[in-house]
Design goal:
Layout (H helix, E strand, L loop, with lengths): L3 H9 L12 H5 L6 H28 L1 H4 L9 H4 L4 H20 L3 H19 L7 H20 L6 H29 L12 H26 L6 H9 L13 H16 L6 H7 L1 H19 L7
Helix pairs in contact: 3-6, 3-7, 3-8, 6-7, 7-8, 8-9, 9-10, 10-12, 12-14, 13-14
Length: 311
């Protein structure tokens, strides 16, 4: 008999919780990262989103069990493989959802609404939206956007329109890349495991990936140009006095090359068919990990290494 606790952990997909780190975007970019009160709120919001995303994944696995059995990888999922009984999966999903909503209700009405909306949208996605070409990509992207803005709502933070454009572009880029990688699976196995994929052509998804990849780095570049924080570190003030070219309110722009490299690397993985699970790449691909860590380190250093205030 299968080990139920192990299968319950597997179906909750804790590896996918890495995507919920997007909730920390608002607290980082508003300069509140080291505020204990704000950090505690975002941390518990992160826990709530972990619970609600796991609940949604279980619902999806229950509804997709038949199709998953045809997939070369998904056939090993707990429900599809028969290692976790469907009644148990339903109970676990319900308990996780209730726990998430209970926790969210203590973090503010807007955050509660976002968590509840995320669950409803994911259930609708599992019931049929994923079968609709283009709509499926938009729903996946919406999930990333909701994570970022849930983190902003819980601390009542303002995010600029340029950052919103960046989040939307990156979300669409990741979603399109996921579908492009799934299309590779069809070509390699001759099995159609997702109905919406029958409406996509490889060239179309290639154009989506290219378009949203370009939009992602360009929107980030615009964000850094218009929203870079003024710094008080002596080295930057000194450089600004030497030449206006090194003006300190352009400081965030030094992260642009790192962002471009990260997007180029992820695109190469997409066309190799390795981006079906973005969360795995963020934890396994060395070049991608390095670019993300370097980018985050630079952002934190620029924002918190002597910042007086935002423009």
């Amino acid at each position: 008999m299968a080990n139920l606790p192990t299968e319950i952990i597997r179906i909750a997909r804790p590896l996918h919780w890495v995507k919920n780190l997007a909730l920390f975007a608002a607290i980082i970019f508003t300069g509140e990262l080291f505020s204990k009160a704000s950090f505690n709120k975002v941390f518990w919001a992160f826990i709530a989103f972990n619970l609600i995303t796991s609940a949604a994944y279980i619902v999806n696995d229950i509804l997709d069990a038949k199709a998953d059995r045809l997939h070369p990888i998904k056939k090993n999922r707990p429900v599809a493989s028969g290692k976790l009984p469907i009644p148990v999966a339903i109970i676990v999903s319900a308990l996780l959802a209730l726990a998430a909503l209970s926790l969210a209700s203590n973090l503010g009405s807007l955050f509660f609404f976002m968590v509840l909306s995320y669950l409803v949208i994911q259930i609708l996605y599992s019931l049929g939206l994923k079968k609709l070409a283009i709509i499926d990509i938009l729903v996946i992207a919406a999930g990333f956007i909701m994570r970022v803005y849930s983190g902003a709502f819980v601390i009542d933070a303002h995010l600029s329109v340029w950052f919103l454009l960046c989040v939307i572009s990156v979300a669409l880029f990741l979603a399109a890349g996921k579908r492009r990688a799934e299309l590779n699976v069809i070509e390699q196995t001759a099995l159609v495991t997702r109905e919406s994929l029958t409406h996509y052509k490889q060239d179309l998804l290639n154009s989506y990936v290219t378009m949203f990849g370009n939009a992602a780095w360009m929107s980030w570049a615009l964000f850094t140009f218009f929203e870079s924080p003024p710094a008080t570190m002596r080295v930057w003030i000194f450089l600004a006095e030497i030449s206006r070219t090194t003006a300190i309110n352009k400081l965030m722009m030094i992260t642009i090359p790192v962002v471009i490299f990260g997007i180029m690397r992820y695109e190469s993985l997409i066309f190799e068919g390795r981006s079906e699970a973005p969360e795995k790449l963020l934890l396994t691909d060395r070049s991608l990990i390095t670019s993300v860590v370097l980018w985050m380190g630079m952002v934190v250093w620029i924002i918190y290494g002597g910042v007086s205030s935002f423009v």
